[in-house]
Design a protein that fits this description.
The protein is α/β, with parallel strands linked by helices. It has twelve helices and 24 strands. The strands form four sheets. Strands 4, 17, 18, 19, 20, 21, 22, 23 and 24 form a nine-stranded mixed β-sheet that branches. α2 runs parallel beside α9 and α8 (208-229) packs parallel to α9 (255-273).
């Protein structure tokens, strides 16, 4: 956790200014102790005497070999959505049987790689993918789930039970004939074992009734499929959506409450419909890594216009696209002026050649000078994952900190990296 000593911010026992000086800026910093605490919270809260429970880390939020190994150390499974994420997991030595492979458009090469590597669970997204997977040689028993669209959409503080029927993901739950055909198609391959269904209803879910609506909807769906096919489906994967705190407006459901609540609701539908459920999966991603992450920037110039006061930083939308992409909100501090009065309101703007390159629209800060270190909180999810080389800015380094020590887990791109893939001259 962060703490303040002599007006300075410390993360995981390491002074933020020292991290910036040692590793450069922009810099992604992860408090490993917070990561471990989040993993432990999910493990403690998502236990059941009735069901086998599996926590699957949604690696799209943040993945590198160090993160994959940390998840493995805690016995957490790993969700990947591309052949590239699968490759990183394999390079980290992550057990392939604990990989869950998602994605709405897995290529032939990705499916072949998954089977070659021995991926434990493949979640098919549509009938065409099911046919392609079933046509391939499968050398060992592989669990298959189908992603269904439950028609429940949750986002921030709201959920809607009949929304999002046009999602690009999954087969709509009402298309039961198509779903039954997919099951038959998969099981025509003797080493593919169709075991159940996956659903996901959104992100940053603050209302636990959204999860209840999802589970009740899936309960009715499973009961209908049981009647239609004459069989039970023992695995239910409820996806993710667990929230993180970005600003004071956010109030996530505590992990210690949401885990038992989900399991209680699963037991209720299992009792009501005699579903034969055996294993329940959830897929937290953002809620594990977001609050553990910080981004450090070095302030450059300031600028005053008739209606704004800017402070420019040495990164921006190239290392955090979320504010530009969907107006995500963050909070910031001056890392060496933590106790000083916040007398100014700055627009923290990045250095990319876009007017929309704004990190925080209105940030209350003390007076900022060139070379001050600014820290932006809760950047652990989708910062590094969505980083780009726009304007050929280099992808920042990633550092883990814990107990007063720091470890470089991803090096900063070099100038040489920017031309390493250039293959030749123009015709």
């Amino acid at each position: 956790m962060e703490e303040i000593k002599n007006n300075a911010l410390y993360i995981g026992g390491v002074r933020a200014q020292d991290l910036a000086d040692q590793y450069g800026t922009p810099l992604y910093v992860y408090d490993q102790g917070v990561l471990e605490n989040k993993l432990e919270q999910f493990i403690r809260s998502f236990r059941s005497d009735r069901f086998k429970t599996t926590i699957v880390y949604a690696s799209k939020a943040f993945l590198c070999t160090a993160m994959a190994r940390l998840a493995d150390r805690y016995g957490i499974d790993l969700d990947v959505v591309s052949g590239e994420e699968l490759y990183v997991a394999r390079q980290a030595g992550f057990p392939m049987e604990r990989i869950v492979f998602h994605g709405n458009n897995k290529t032939l090469d990705e499916l072949k790689a998954a089977l070659e590597y021995g991926v434990g669970t493949i979640i098919v997204d549509n009938a065409q993918e099911a046919r392609r997977l079933a046509s391939l040689p499968v050398s060992k028993p592989t669990t298959v789930l189908l992603r269904v669209n439950p028609g429940v959409e949750a986002h921030t503080h709201e959920y809607i039970v009949t929304a999002h029927v046009d999602s690009k993901f999954g087969v709509l739950k009402d298309e039961t004939d198509a779903i039954a055909a997919i099951i038959d198609c998969v099981e025509a391959n003797p080493n593919l074992r169709f075991q159940g269904f996956h659903a996901h209803i959104g992100s940053q879910i603050f209302d636990r009734n959204a999860f209840k609506a999802e589970i009740e909807t899936m309960g009715r769906f499973l009961a209908g499929m049981k009647q239609k096919t004459g069989r039970v489906f023992p695995i239910l994967d409820l996806g993710g959506g667990f929230a993180a705190t970005y600003t004071s407006e956010d109030a996530p459901i505590p992990v210690k409450e949401v885990g038992p609540f989900i399991l209680e609701q699963c037991a209720a539908i299992d009792d009501e419909y005699d579903l034969g459920l055996e294993r329940i999966l959830i897929e937290p991603g953002r809620s594990i890594v977001a609050e553990a992450g910080y981004t450090l920037y070095r302030a450059g110039y300031t600028k005053t216009t008739p209606h704004k006061r800017y402070v420019f930083v040495d990164g921006g939308m190239s290392d955090n696209i979320r504010p530009a992409l969907y107006q995500a909100k963050y909070r910031a501090e001056a890392a060496e002026k933590m106790n000083e009065e916040k007398t100014e309101t700055y627009c923290i703007a990045g250095k990319c050649c876009e007017s929309g390159d704004i990190v925080i629209e209105n940030a209350a800060l003390p007076p900022i000078e060139t070379d001050d270190i600014l820290v932006v909180y809760t950047t652990g999810a989708y910062g590094y994952s969505m980083a780009s080389n726009y304007n050929l800015l280099r992808i920042p380094a990633v550092v883990f900190v814990k107990d007063g020590r720091s470890s470089l887990v991803v090096r900063r791109q070099t100038l040489e990296d920017l031309v390493a893939r250039d293959a030749g001259d123009a015709l």
